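Training component of the fellowship. As part of building independent skills, the fellow (R.M.) carried out the full modelling exercise for a liganded target. The chosen ligand was NDP. The inputs are recorded below so that the supervisory panel can assess the work.
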Amino acid sequence: MTTTPVPSIELNNGVLIPQVGYGVFQVPEDGTQRAVEQALEAGYRHIDTAAAYYNEAGVGAALRASGLPREDVFVTTKLRNGDQGADSTLRAFEASRTALGLDVVDLYLVHWPYPSADRYIETWRSFEKLYAEGAVRAIGVSNFLPPFLERLLAETDVVPAVNQIEIHPSFQQVDTQTASRAAGVAVQAYSPLGQGKDLHAPAVTEVAERLGVTPGQVVLRWHLQQGTIIIPKSVTPERIASNIDLFSFELTEQDMAAISALDSDERIGADPATADFTQVRA
Ligand code: NDP
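Fellow's submitted model of the complex:
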């Protein structure tokens, strides 16, 4: 159990989000309840799932089994690309809310802009409706590169609370981060550990050895010191615990700069400008 409380970030509507969350992408449906229970046990109070992960029910089961008060855990889910559209968004939200077993979802995200469908503006209008009704405490986007974000800001009313994007040392998307923060949109890093690929870089391992922490902790701390919200995923109990144990050490400015210098513009995930999968399982 972590001893230092995780700080919260205030979103643009005043809602507080714990800066460290637990992501469940690629956690199998039948292992999700157990993994999330372990995360809650380790001190996480922020869970990041998605309809496209097909494990929302496991997240909900873990929340109920934990006995934690509902307001103590921040829960995010996301709309599948194939569910974008005015009415389909509302139907998909009900399905997610039911699977999670929650009355109110803390944060609901448009998972991808999915530009080939050109439906993210009408989708966002439905998000605004859910927000106005109080079914969600905050609404946001994911994978919104600057042109998508700019169009959304120009054509709709509610400024997204967050933009959840791929960020790790070798892929930092500084332009998207800058455009998001400038518009008052908090930045959430997905794949914050680069799915492991950045952990062997000497700039990371040298700091880890000096501070007596793991390379994973160094990379996660590098995000935190930039004010970024992180959602690392692990199904390994020791990693679940160490990925939130980030508050008893600090990186120097030189450490930060050396890790930032690893940016090589190499993404792991799909390119949001062209990604056109529906995320709907056959
Ligand atoms: P991460 O960068 O969190 O890496 C996860 C991988 O790294 C797993 O293979 C895990 O292995 C391993 N790992 C975890 N901790 C450590 C550690 N301390 N040391 C070494 N290896 C470690 O990648 P994800 O892509 O899973 O991203 C995290 C979350 O971001 C997702 O779960 C999801 O919630 C979100 N996400 C959102 C996307 C979007 O489009 N909005 C896209 C992708 C992710 P193991 O589990 O075996 O321990």
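The panel noted the following from the submitted structure. Strands lie at 8-10, 16-18, 22-23, 46-48, 74-79, 105-110, 136-142, 162-166, 186-190, 229-230. The chain has ten helices and ten strands.
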